[in-house]
Amino acid sequence: MASAETAAEHERILREIESTDTNCIGPTLRSVYDGQEHGLFMDKLEGRIRNHDREIEKMCNHHFQGFVDSITELLKVRGEAQKLKCQVTETNQKLQNDGKELLTSMDELRQCRLQQRNIATTIDKLTHCLPVLEMYSKLQEQMRAKRYYPALRTLEQLEESCLPQAGSYRFCGIMSENIPRLRTHIRDVSMSDLKDFLESIRKHSDKIGETAMKQAQVQIARDNAVTSQQRSASGRRIRKEACSGTEVDRTGSNPFSEKDSGILDVEDEEKDEIPGAQDLVDFSPVYRCLHIYTVLGARDTFENYYRKQRRKQARLVLQPHSNMHETLEGYRRYFNQIVGFFVVEDHILHTTQGLVNRAYVEELWELALSKTIAALRTHSSYCTDPDLILDLKNLIVLFADTLQGYGFPVNQLFDMLLEMRDQYGEILLKKWNQSFRQILDQDNYSPIPVASPEEYQRIAGQFPFQDPELDKMPFPKKLPFSEFVPKVYSQLKEFIYACLKYSEDLHLSSTEIDDMIRKSTNLLLTRTLSHCLQYAIKKKNVGLAELVQIIINTTHLEQSCHYLEEFISNITNVPPDTINATKLYGTSTFKDARHAAEEEIYTNLNQKIDQFLQLADYDWTAAQGGAQASDYLSDLIAFLCSTFAVFTHLPGNAIEHATLPGKVAQTACMSACKHLSTSLLQLLLEGDVRQVSMGALQQFNVDVKECERFARAGPVPGFQGDTLLLAFIDLRQLLDLFTQWDWSTYLADYGRPTCKYLRVNPQTALTLLEKISLSMKDTSRKNNMFAQFRKNERDKQKLIDTVVKQLRNLIATNQA
């Protein structure tokens, strides 16, 4: 059984060796050597080889004749093949010789085709590369020319279109690597240009603002010229129509000529055109930087940076110099910088889309307006020169009109100018206070002498004075008032003109201007001029003649007040009878001054009387009085006579206008007499005089009679009867009571309307009686050696004691 299996296995191995490639026979043979029947297999293999040899021998024997025949034929063919080989060799040699030129030509053709293909490929590649190189060259040229926005556009086109088409060449890679650096460089350079631009406009905003304000000034002048020419032409047409009716000239054209309409004038002025902000400033850095940042996708960053920097510049511009208030040029530079700043912003607003918007500009303007107004209020408060204030006002108006022309609201500036009007008025009042003081100090307080009609007309042109009677008088003659009247009147008109100048161009109505001028003039009259007149009246060493002249002057100024009303109405075109129109207080001002001068006259007279009374030197213990008035009283009466003579001899018109020597002279005279009477009575009753003798009382009575003689003589005309004597009636009745010793009548009739001594006060009588009693007692002690006198003195003393007792009872009864 085992041998059968071994035989089958050896058979399988042999078949596998016969059918398998010799390269793969190794595993089969290994299986044979791994077994135990190696010899058997070798025997089997050799048997199989012998079988195959026998089959090969059989096959060879079967085909041998054919093989021999084939060999024989091959031997025959070899000769023919040798011949054929020679022929082929010859033919090949000939072919080779003949094809050598063809091969050369073919090789050349191949080379040409290869070159042609290379050239075509090169052309194709260059076609894609040349635009890249041209674009890059263009980019470099633009960069050198600092045309950064076109360079950025070229860079964008190079990156998006040209480089992708060119392929992956080394130079393309270098260009691609340079593109971000070029973008960064363009961005940085454009930002540097923007910073230079911002710095430039910050430095040159003064010049830009100055140019813009000049443009506005020229435009305003043109508008005013056109308006005035149109009014003038209209006036001429109206007058022409009034004379000859409405006509058309012979050519049928309009009666208004082109020159009258102002067209030619405006065209002529336009030849000298002032450059605008866009002509003074190169805005290309802003536009370029804006476009570049827009292309780079960083527009918001650029807008924020620009606005932030401009806000910083605005704060710097709005910060005034500390000494700006000293000169007008300081204010001008300040305004020029502000105008220049906003002219630039307005130009940027209208020439760019969204870099700045209206809200941003309005926010800046609100900031500028508040800071400008605050600065002007602060610095203008230091100003004390009205001319500088007026120039500043005109400059502010031009500043406001300039910015208003650019669309900025400026109402707050005009409101501030109305506030400054009060400050301007106060400064004017101070200036005019000095002018009035100087006029009053330099005046000679004498009527103005006029030597010729020309001089008279000159003064009449300064002051509205009309006096038909004075006009009839021959030259030379004197005007009733002194120099300060026309000078003060002229100063009043100058003040009104100064107020009018400030109100111009403030967009106020005629009524508002009229009201402003009238109120300011009232302040000048009631405060400034009134104080100056009071100063002139109250100052030391002013004489009575000067006071009288002041009264005359103020009277004429009072009469001129309605001319001032008309003057204001004429320059403001507002009728004086307009409802709610402010009236001038000049009349009351000059009346108050005249009354003060009158009171000063009375006061001065009384002071002079007191000075004379201080010279009184009565001997109150004199036994006998003199027959003549005291020296001090004689001098006093002489002074009063000469003083009132001054009143009496004043020019007639002056006396008439100033009511002298009418009411004022009469009042002065009556006041002087009353003061003299009162002072004499106080002199008699003063506490230092402890006793009064009858002799001293007689001398005092003589002095009082001298006063009564002066009053009776009528130093001032116009008193009726003995009116002036009533000033001394209290003193007269008191002296009569004591000199006549009429106590029984006084005591019996006291309190009755018909009492002879109605003006004698019991207390006054008691005081004087006690002084006389004391004097009599002192005299009786000195004369006690004469017995016959002692009895009379005792009787009189008893009578005095009785009267004293009755007077005290009378006083007590009146007090109860």
Task: Please explain how this structure is put together.
The chain is an all-alpha fold and 816 residues long. 77% of the residues lie in helices and 0% in strands. Strands 1-2 form a two-stranded antiparallel ribbon. Helix 1 runs parallel beside helix 3 and helix 3 (38-144) packs antiparallel against helix 4 (148-166). The radius of gyration is 68 Å and the shape is rod-shaped. This is Exocyst complex component. Component of the exocyst complex involved in the docking of exocytic vesicles with fusion sites on the plasma membrane. InterPro entries: EXOC6/Sec15, EXOC6/Sec15_C, EXOC6_Sec15_N.
Topology:
Blueprint: H1 2-19, H2 26-34, H3 38-144, H4 148-166, H5 170-244, H6 258-261, H7 263-270, H8 277-280, H9 284-295, H10 299-317, H11 328-351, H12 358-380, H13 386-405, H14 411-442, E1 449-450, H15 453-462, H16 468-472, E2 477-478, H17 484-503, H18 510-538, H19 544-559, H20 561-572, H21 586-613, H22 631-648, H23 652-658, H24 663-685, H25 694-712, H26 729-739, H27 743-749, H28 762-782, H29 787-815
Antiparallel strand pairs: 1-2
Helix pairs in contact: 1-3, 3-4, 4-5, 4-9, 5-9, 5-11, 5-13, 9-10, 11-12, 11-13, 12-14, 13-14, 14-17, 14-18, 17-18, 17-20, 18-21, 19-21, 19-23, 21-22, 21-24, 22-25, 25-26, 28-29
